[in-house]
Design goal:
The complex is a heterodimer. By secondary structure, chain A is an all-alpha fold. Chain A has 2 domains: 2-56; 75-303, MetI-like (MetI-like fold). Helices cover 70% and strands 1% of the residues of chain A. Chain A has helices spanning 2-12, 30-56, 72-78, 81-113, 120-128, 135-145, 152-159, 171-199, 203-211, 216-244, 248-254, 265-274, 279-303; strands at 59-60, 67-68. In chain A, helix 6 packs across helix 11. Chain A starts with a helix and ends in a 5-residue tail after the last helix. Chain B has helices at 2-27, 32-35, 48-59, 61-92, 98-107, 113-126, 133-137, 144-155, 159-167, 172-201, 204-209, 218-227, 233-253, 255-264. By secondary structure, chain B is mainly α. Chain B has a single domain (61-268), classed as MetI-like (MetI-like fold). Chain B is globular and about 70 Å long. The model of chain B has no long low-confidence stretch (mean pLDDT 86). The two termini of chain B are 42 Å apart. Chain B is 75% helix and 0% strand. Classes of the chains: A mainly alpha, B mainly alpha. Chains A and B meet through helix 1, helix 2, helix 4, helix 5 and helix 6 of A and helix 1, helix 4, helix 5, helix 6 and helix 9 of B. Chain B: It is found in: Cell membrane. Chain B: Keywords: Cell membrane, Membrane, Transmembrane, Transmembrane helix, Transport. Chain B: Residues 65-254 form the ABC transmembrane type-1 domain. Chain B: It is a multi-pass membrane protein.
């Protein structure tokens, strides 16, 4: 019955020239009207800029002085030692930081999920807070926290008898500082994602395993890890893509220094575009970054079996 | 006993996460020299008023806060409506080009923000919108991730529910407003919180698009202030507290929406 009525309703609202009261919004044109605002925004601020950036990457100069130079910017990129430095720094931070953070997040989530834990809501609230901080607030806070002579971190280390570290002044420690800042910023966020995953694992699985006499370690490897696999993979992909585009932390903490030790691809892009106003070169860096991100994305999709 | 040990460890992690915010709030009440004293200050001082007055003098705080709120509210409201309408079309209607547009929309998720920023800057320059608030708002009204989120949630609404309303003679807009919106309220709230937080904290694009201090948003004003040599950090700390602590309070009030909004953000790619 619903079906026939629906069809009637559809014909009635169909806005055919014969209907006595033509409506502005009909069942036939409504999807186009609904999609129109999004389409306008998409074309103007996504599709057009993405294509324009590709063209800009093949040019030099700006405005009336813009000239087509073919692949010159890309040739320059391949021969630019600073670009390779930024690529190396990004890869280094990626390889060190992502595994540490995700492992910490998993341990934290397991702790948060334990039935033995008291005041769970409070702790969960606290670990989530860092991910709400904006770039600038975070940068200001950490630049003071990491300061050599009067920073909170060195004071804390001092309690344990560790000498003050020049966090932002040496190439080695500056990288560590970026890793620490990143880890502080995003571990709780990932832990809350894992926690949601852990809570969706059916309790019956654990109960059955316990009946079968499986110990805690066995239950973890045979139930928790496989059940959590899709979420683990998701966070690996997201963190990898996010770190490949790393900009915030080096921008506010180190400015890419000292000695370019924390210069990342995105930071190098920004410097070329908006410090030297070399738009053509910056656009070429942006496209190189896109290729790298897309390459990683495809690789990881492939490894995860092509699931969305 | 084991429960207490675990609780203690989590309390320590909690302190590491929340400690910097507490320290920030305390630092905002101390003078510059005390902030950089050898021992951190974990108790409130008496300089909050003086620091705030200095901040107001340096960055015209009221103006800057007004700009930030205006951009965040307008941008979030419009972006939610755009996402809801588009998500509704994708989930509940057949139309030509639907799948192609959807795939295109999603594929832009993997394109780094750095790609579009230069052409958008030139576009805004040509439109003479640089150094205006619309320059911040316009590029952020179509949010592919938001549309995706809306579509996924709307797919879960049974068609019968919509058809029943149509049978009762409701027009399409009425169906949307009376049937879809009430069901979608939690998802809309989550997306709203997510977008508002993003707009409130947004830095890079406002930094590029704004020129005069009266047009600045809070993050741009703060960064500029911090970069000035011999800056008095008491005022910077007050500004930082103003920019981050309201979000913490909002988070405490809207915990559920925040977490589901940010977790949904995990699909952002």
């Amino acid at each position: 019955m619903t079906l026939t009525m629906t069809r009637e309703a559809a014909t009635e609202g169909g806005g055919s020239p014969r209907s006595h009261r033509p409506r502005l919004i009909t069942k036939r044109n409504i999807p186009y009207l609904l999609i129109l605002p999004a389409l306008l925004g998409f074309v103007s601020f996504k599709a057009y800029p993405i294509l324009a950036a590709l063209y800009i990457s093949l040019t030099t100069g700006a405005g009336a002085a813009r000239t087509f130079v073919g692949l010159d910017n890309y040739v320059r990129l391949v021969n630019d030692p600073l670009f390779w430095t930024s690529l190396w720094n990004t890869a280094l931070i990626l390889v060190v930081q992502v595994p540490i953070m995700l492992l910490l997040a998993l341990v934290l989530a397991l702790g948060l999920n334990s039935p033995l834990l008291r005041l769970r809501g409070l702790w969960r609230l606290g670990v989530f807070m860092p991910s709400l901080t904006g770039l600038v607030a975070y940068g200001v806070m950490f630049s003071v926290i990491l300061s050599k002579d009067s920073g909170l971190l060195n004071w804390l280390l001092g309690i344990f008898g560790i000498d003050a570290i020049d966090w932002l002044g040496s190439p080695f420690w500056a990288r560590i500082a970026v890793v620490i800042a990143l880890t502080w910023h995003y571990t709780g966020y990932n832990a809350v994602i894992y926690l949601a995953g852990l809570q969706s694992i059916p309790k019956e699985l654990y109960e059955a395993a316990m009946v079968d006499g499986a110990g805690a370690a066995r239950r973890f490897w045979s139930i928790t890890v496989p059940q959590l696999r899709p979420i683990l993979l998701l966070t690996v992909v997201l963190s990898t893509i996010g770190t490949l585009q790393l900009f915030d932390e080096p921008f506010v903490l180190t400015g890419g220094g000292p000695d370019n030790s924390t210069l990342t691809i995105s930071l190098y892009l920004y410097e070329n575009g908006f410090r030297y106003f070399d738009f053509g070169y910056a656009a070429a860096i942006a496209y190189a970054l896109t290729l790298i991100v897309a390459g990683f994305g495809l690789l990881q999709l492939k490894l995860t079996g092509g699931k969305k | 006993m084991k429960g207490w040990a675990l609780t203690f460890v989590l309390a320590a992690v909690f302190a590491l996460c929340v400690g910097p915010f507490y320290w920030l709030a305390m630092a905002a009440t101390h003078a510059n020299s005390e902030i950089f004293a050898e021992t951190p200050k974990f108790y409130p001082g008496d300089q909050l008023g003086a620091n705030t007055a200095k901040l107001e003098e340096s960055i015209s705080l009221v103006h800057v806060l007004g700009n930030t709120l205006f951009v965040a509210i307008v941008q979030t409201s419009i972006a939610i409506v755009v996402a809801l309408l588009a998500g509704y079309a994708f989930a509940k209607f057949e139309f030509r080009g639907r799948n192609a547009f959807f795939v295109l929309l999603l594929s832009t998720l993997v394109i780094p923000g750095g790609v579009t920023i230069i052409p958008i800057f030139e576009m805004m320059n040509d439109l003479d919108l640089i150094d205006s608030l619309p320059a911040l708002i316009l590029p952020n009204l179509t949010v592919p991730f938001g549309i995706f989120l809306m579509r996924q949630s709307l797919l879960a609404i049974p068609d019968e529910l919509l058809d029943a309303a149509r049978v009762d003679g409701a027009g399409e807009l009425r169906v949307l407003w009376r049937v879809v919106v009430p069901v979608m309220r939690p998802v809309l709230a989550a997306l709203g919180v997510f977008l508002f937080l993003g707009a409130w904290n947004d830095f890079l694009w406002p930094l590029i698009a704004l020129r005069t201090p009266e047009m600045f948003t809070l993050p741009v004003a703060l960064a500029t202030l911090q970069a000035q040599a011999r800056t008095d950090f008491g005022q910077v700390m007050v500004g930082t507290a103003i920019s981050s602590l309201p979000m913490m309070v909002l988070f405490l009030v809207l915990q559920k929406q925040f977490i589901s909004g940010l977790l949904a953000g995990a699909t952002k790619g």
